Amino acid sequence: MINHIAPREGEGDLRLLNFSNAQALKDTVMHMKAKFGSDCKILGVGFSMGGNHLIRYLGDYKTSSDSSGIHAAMTIGNPFDVLATGL
């Protein structure tokens, strides 16, 4: 499985998603807030490595839900210790 994200304006190629960098998720949340209003409630759901990515993102903003932009989140079947699972 290859996780990729679309290029940003000015970039030509798809790039691999770096799970240690949550900027793409932050950009997505900010885009949704801009499109649907700053008071919209965003719910995050992550599955497998997507769950790890979501938890990593929320951990970067653990002091309040407002700074992450996500109202509530849940993860399903994610490996909390990626190295121990052999992924």
Q: What's a quick, concise take on this entry?
A:
Helices cover 39% and strands 20% of the residues. It has 4 helices and 4 strands. The strands form 2 sheets. It has a two-stranded antiparallel ribbon with strand order 1-2. The chain has a two-stranded parallel ribbon with strand order 3-4.
Largest β sheet strand count, sense and barrel closure: 2 strands, antiparallel
Q: What is the residue-mean pLDDT, rounded to a whole number?
A: 77
Unreliable segments (pLDDT under 50, ≥5 consecutive)?
A: none
Helix/strand-derived category reads alpha+beta
* Percent helix: 25-40%
Across the major sheet, the strand order is 1-2
Radius of gyration, Cα only, in angstroms?
Answer: 14 Å
Q: What share of residues are in beta strands?
A: 15-25%
- Tally of contiguous helical segments: 4
Q: How many domains would you count in the coordinates?
A: 1
Report the principal-axis shape.
globular
Give the H and E element order.
EEHEHHEH
**Straight-line N-to-C gap:** 11 Å
What is the total tally of β strands?
4
Architecture overview:
The chain starts with a strand and ends with a helix. The mean pLDDT is 77. The protein has one domain. It is built from four helices and four strands, in the order E-E-H-E-H-H-E-H. A two-stranded antiparallel sheet has the order 1-2. Strands 3-4 form a two-stranded parallel ribbon. It has 87 residues and is of the alpha+beta class.
